[in-house]
Design brief:
The complex is a heterodimer.
Chain A (H helix, E strand, L loop, with lengths): L43 H5 L6 E6 L14 E5 L9 E6 L2 E9 L4 E4 L8 E3 L5 E11 L3
Antiparallel strand pairs in A: 1-2, 2-7, 3-4, 3-7, 4-5, 5-6
Chain B lengths: L1 E6 L2 H9 L8 E4 L6 E4 L1 H5 L12 H6 L3 E4 L2 H15 L6 E5 L2 E5 L8 H16 L3 E6 L2 H13 L1 H4 L2 E3 L3 H10 L10 H9 L5 H5 L3 H19 L17 E11 L2 H21 L2 E12 L10 E12 L2 H15 L6 E9 L2 E2 L14 H16 L34 E3 L1
Parallel strand pairs in B: 2-4, 7-8
Antiparallel strand pairs in B: 1-6, 1-7, 2-3, 5-6, 9-12, 10-11, 10-12, 10-13
The chains are: A mainly beta, B alpha+beta.
């Protein structure tokens, strides 16, 4: 807690943490004209992660969602803070197993839709235990 | 008002978030090197599995009751803890991270808020975003928030995991319910003494005279009493106080008979302590070294010993601490013993800037510059790249972790798989 009153003494940080690095090298000539225009680097984190505390990752196994561009081995970015909605792709837990499917919300039932003709839609009834674990926001694939 | 947010069965819950099929099943988490049980799910507690149970003695128990056993996965727990704390900081800027799974919150300027509703919102958001179930207690002081948290957790079916002490009636009822030994800050020693004086509940404790409490339990006990009376006396500490002692101890995965090998281990423990000291910008005045054989193998000769060595100056140099710890080991080492565990603890810790020069003995000032460079290189190239020559260069730190779960959130190769 902050103490009220009294004097605060500041000591210079001499811990040597963060060794000083001359990025452009040290030269006796003119400084780089680009120095004043430095931007930060492009970061995929900033693009794909909107909510760090709620963001998790998963690896796709199999090809049930190939029609949505999710192939075996792709990396998914999952945001747990988003609300599940009709049409969203979600990582769900159905009867104890993780699965990734597109949500189809109807009046009194929910369908988990694969995007591959070889997989049938899964109807979630009262007898199933369904938990929406998180909403898929990005897919990262190696080409 | 203060709040205490406590993660329910934190380690077990971390595992369940990524293996939800373990919901409702007994889980036990083992210490480093899979030595003993350090955390249990409610189901495991209900089976009678004691805290600290040695894992090798309980194998048949685990099998018989289908207890799912995990080695401790600190990268996972640390990351989940950070996420929970990050969410909490969205609700109030005043957050004291009290431990890996607990935080105190302070609510200033929330007079017109329904804080109970607010706490339910906190619980809901933490649960949704991170998957972590938490219990929240609220009260006019930290100690009462802690009491309220116990009520919230104990009677979860009625409280929904949130309880507020906001009236004298509720305060007294809760304090009369809470056994003195379960009060925050009442250790084993005080508990015994208080029970002898017929102090059985937190309420009884608040009825003691200030003078007695102060005399027997110092000003710390007095602050606790006032906190329990609803007069907030223990402030929120947002900056972690430097640790009073730092220890690195390990049970070895197999028994060590060889003196050189033991020296290597002790030297490594000492340099780890030195690194921890430097991380928190402090130095130590004394080094404590201990060794012991395996008490669970009574057929082997048993031995345990320890020694404390004072340093003439405060230091955080790996070289000095390693040398001192090895000197200590020489004093207590006994040949012919199979050693199971050793450790180094540094104590008499002072902040770096309060370092007192001495006139006659001092450390080679080059140590400090050397340590700074070592720390920098470790930061840049990863830990344990530079070692002292009496440490084994080939030995990367090995732990027995037979039941380790994947590092779901800290290693991209370990993320969950979805079909």
């Amino acid at each position: 807690m902050e103490k009220e009153g009294g004097l605060h003494f500041f000591t210079p940080d001499t811990s040597g943490k963060g060794v000083w690095l001359a990025v452009e090298g040290v030269s006796a000539g003119f400084p780089s004209p680009a120095d004043d225009f430095k931007e930060t680097q492009i970061s995929l984190d900033k693009v794909a992660v909107k909510n760090e505390a709620a963001t998790f990752y998963a690896r796709v196994a199999g090809q049930s969602m190939i029609g949505a561009g999710l192939d075996d081995g792709d990396l998914l970015v999952i945001d747990r803070s988003l609300e599940p909605q009709d049409g969203k792709i979600a990582v769900c837990l159905i009867d104890g197993d993780f699965t990734v499917k597109r949500l189809k919300v109807e009046k009194d039932c929910v369908w988990l839709m694969a995007e591959n003709k070889r997989y049938k839609p899964i109807q979630v009834t009262e007898e199933n235990e369904l938990m929406i674990w998180g909403i898929v926001t990005y897919v990262l694939k190696a080409l | 008002m203060f709040g205490l947010v406590d993660c329910n069965n934190f380690y077990a819950s971390c595992e369940r978030i990524f293996q939800p099929s373990l919901e409702g099943k007994p889980i036990a988490i083992l210490s480093n090197n899979d030595g003993c049980v350090i955390a249990r799910s409610n189901e495991a507690k209900a089976l009678g599995l004691p805290m600290g149970a040695p894992a090798h003695q309980y194998n048949s128990f685990f099998n018989q009751h289908n207890v799912k056993v995990f080695s401790s996965n600190y990268p996972l727990y640390g990351d989940m803890s950070r996420r929970v704390m990050d969410v909490l900081k969205q609700f109030t800027p005043l957050v004291e991270v009290y431990s890996i799974d607990e935080a105190f919150l302070q609510f200033e300027g929330f007079e017109y808020y329904d804080l109970e509703e607010y706490a339910r919102e906190i619980k809901k958001r933490v649960g949704k975003w991170t998957g972590m179930p938490v219990s929240i207690g609220l009260g006019p002081s930290k100690a009462l928030a802690k009491v309220a948290n116990r009520v919230a957790k104990k009677f979860a079916d009625r409280t929904g995991g949130v309880y507020v002490i906001d009236s004298e009636e509720k305060r007294i009822k809760a304090l009369k319910w809470l056994a003195i030994g379960d009060v925050w800050g009442i250790g084993h020693r005080h508990n015994k003494r208080l029970v002898l004086r017929q102090v059985r509940t937190a309420f009884d404790f608040t009825q003691l005279s200030d003078a007695w409490v102060r005399k027997e339990m110092s000003v710390v006990g007095l602050r606790l009493k006032h906190d329990l009376l609803g007069k907030s006396s223990i402030p929120l500490e947002m900056i972690a106080a430097p640790k009073k002692a730092i220890a690195t101890t390990r049970s070895f995965e197999s028994l060590i008979d060889d003196y050189q090998e033991l020296r290597e281990r002790v030297s490594t423990f000492a340099s780890l302590c030195a690194e921890k000291l430097r991380q928190q910008n402090s130095r130590c005045h004394a080094v404590y070294v201990f060794v012991r054989s395996n008490p669970f193998m009574p057929d082997l000769p048993q031995y345990r010993n320890s020694t404390m060595i004072s340093l003439p100056f405060a230091t955080n140099s790996s070289l000095t601490l390693s040398k001192t710890a090895l000197h200590g080991l020489d004093l207590i080492y006994k040949p012919g013993i199979s050693y199971k565990k050793a450790g180094v603890m540094v104590t008499g810790i002072v902040p770096e800037d309060a370092y007192q020069m001495t006139l006659f003995t001092y450390e080679n000032p080059k140590h400090q510059a050397l340590m700074q460079h070592i720390d920098y290189l470790h930061k840049r190239f990863g830990p344990h790249k530079i070692k002292i020559a009496n440490q084994d260069l080939n030995r990367t730190y090995k732990m027995k972790q037979a039941h380790l779960s994947p590092r779901y959130t800290t290693d991209v190769r370990d993320v969950i798989r979805v079909h």
